[in-house]
Specification:
Oligomer: single chain
CATH class: Alpha Beta
CATH architecture: 3-Layer(aba) Sandwich
Strand order of the largest sheet: 3-2-1-4
Low-confidence stretches: none
Largest sheet: 4 strands, parallel
Number of helices: 7
Order of helices and strands: EHEHEHHEHHH
Number of strands: 4
Mean pLDDT: 90
CATH superfamily: HUPs
Helix content: 40-55%
Length: 180
C-alpha cells in the first residue's frame, strides 16, 4: 500500500512511523502546515522533517507555503482553543486527502494522531468524513503509545523539538501558562 502521511514535524513523524509496518506500507511524508508560526518555527520544523525523512529513507512532498495570512483568515471568526483547532485539522487533512487522490496514493493518514495534546477522536472523525468526500481511504492508526519514545529518539537524533502545536495562538497560551 502507498500511504501519504501528513506530517506536522520530525518528532511526531518519528513516533507515528513506529506504528506503521514499513515493510508492508510505502510511506511518503507530506508537509502542508500553514498553521505553523512564526516563520522561524515553520522553517525549523520543516528542516527537522527533511532531516528525518533522509535518515529513514522516506520520500517527502513539501508544500512550502508559509501561510500566515491564510491561516489567520481561516480561524479569525473563532479563536477559542478547540474551535480554531478543528478548522486547522480539517484544512490540513483535507489538503492531504486531495493530494493523495491527485497523486494516486492508496490511502492517507496524519501524524496529528500521535500527540496526546491533540483531539484524537475529532481528528479521526474529520479524516473519516473527508476520506468519504474525497474518495481516498483514511488509514487509521493509533500511534499515541509511541509518542514519548518517538520524542526521545528525535532528541537523540538532534531533531528540532517544538514546545507548542504551531499556531501563534497556541504559543501565546503556552507563555501565559508559564507566567502564572
Amino acid at each position: 500500500m502507498k500511504l501519504l502521511l501528513h506530517t506536522c514535524c520530525g518528532p511526531c513523524t518519528k513516533g507515528t512511523l513506529k506504528a506503521i509496518d514499513r515493510n508492508e506500507i510505502d510511506v511518503t511524508a507530506y508537509w502542508y502546515n500553514p498553521n505553523i508560526h512564526p516563520y522561524l518555527e515553520y522553517q525549523s520544523r520543516l528542516d527537522s522533517l527533511k532531516k528525518l525523512a533522509q535518515s529513514v529513507d522516506m520520500d517527502a512532498i513539501i508544500e512550502d507555503d508559509y501561510g500566515l495570512k491564510r491561516f489567520v483568515q481561516m480561524v479569525a471568526d473563532d479563536l477559542e482553543f478547540g474551535k480554531r483547532c478543528i478548522k486547522c485539522y480539517t484544512d490540513r487533512i483535507y489538503q492531504t486527502a486531495r493530494k493523495a487522490k491527485e497523486l494516486g496514493y492508496d490511502a492517507f493518514s496524519t501524524t496529528l494522531l500521535v500527540s496526546p495534546y491533540q483531539q484524537h477522536e475529532r481528528i479521526k472523525q474529520e479524516a473519516t468524513r473527508i476520506a468519504e468526500e474525497i474518495g481516498v481511504p483514511f488509514y487509521y492508526i493509533d500511534p499515541r503509545p509511541y509518542f514519548r519514545e518517538g520524542n526521545k529518539e528525535a532528541r537523540e537524533q538532534g531533531l528540532y523539538m517544538q514546545k507548542y502545536c504551531g499556531c501563534v495562538f497556541s504559543e501565546e497560551d503556552r507563555y501565559k501558562k508559564q507566567t502564572k
